Amino acid sequence: MISAQNQTTWPSADSFLRTSPFAKYLHLASPPPLLRSMGRSERDCIARHLLDLDTHDRYLRFGYLVSDDQLQRYVDNLDFERDEVFGIYDRRLELIAMAQLAFAPDGNHDSCAELGLSVAKRARGRGYGARLFARAAIVARNEGVGLVIHMLSENAAMLKIVSNAGASVVRSGPAPRPGLVSPWSWRRPGTRG
């Protein structure tokens, strides 16, 4: 028979990990957010993500003030057959960042593809925009087209992403709307441009 005096009380696993001398090595990190291609079945996720952007973020993303109805029409008209749409999901499988790489409507991929991207306010500063940009650059290169981004000069985050990637920013027109022309030669041999 074991008496109550001889019983040892063990600390909980949580308190043990916090007080252990090895606690700094036992960091239990969550998995990195998932970046993947999106399809038409995810229109609702895209709409929720874009509708959650505030007025200023919508202005930076689209270049003009966008109403909820205009956003919904944009989502309804996304062409998943022609364009590449990809997103980053958090551990709760909520869309926290997305990008659309839009190709020419007639299928003429000889010139360029335009990139538009957005990151939820709560997910900024973690490099998700840069990850989306890198993915778009790879897709554009594989398609043999250049990458173009129309953005406002006040969009500091996007300017930082493209300058860190080594791309050049070119102003187009009198308005403060720089366009992006990438320095990489992505054209297939024999294509014009």
Give the CATH H-level superfamily: Gcn5-related N-acetyltransferase (GNAT)
**Pairing-aware structural class of the strands and helices?**
alpha+beta
End-to-end Cα distance: 89 Å
Task: Write down how many β-strands occur, each being a DSSP E stretch of 2 or more residues.
Answer: 7
State the CATH class: Alpha Beta
* CATH level-two architecture: 3-Layer(aba) Sandwich
Order of helices and strands: HEHHHEEEHEHEE
In which order are the strands of the major sheet placed?
A: 1-2-3-4-5
Helix share, percent: 25-40%
List keywords for this structure.
193 residues, globular, disordered C terminus, 5-stranded mixed beta sheet, alpha+beta, two-stranded antiparallel sheet, 7 strands, Aminopeptidase, 6 helices
Write the layout of secondary structure elements.
Layout: H1 13-19, E1 34-37, H2 43-51, H3 55-62, H4 68-76, E2 84-89, E3 95-102, E4 112-119, H5 128-143, E5 146-148, H6 156-164, E6 168-171, E7 178-181
Parallel strand pairs: 4-5
Antiparallel strand pairs: 1-2, 2-3, 3-4, 6-7
Helix pairs in contact: 2-4
Quick summary of this structure?
By secondary structure, this protein is α+β, with helices and mostly antiparallel strands.
Give a verbal description of the structure.
This protein is α+β, with helices and mostly antiparallel strands. The chain has one domain (32-181): 3-Layer(aba) Sandwich (Aminopeptidase). It has helices at residues 13-19, 43-51, 55-62, 68-76, 128-143, 156-164, and strands at residues 34-37, 84-89, 95-102, 112-119, 146-148, 168-171, 178-181.
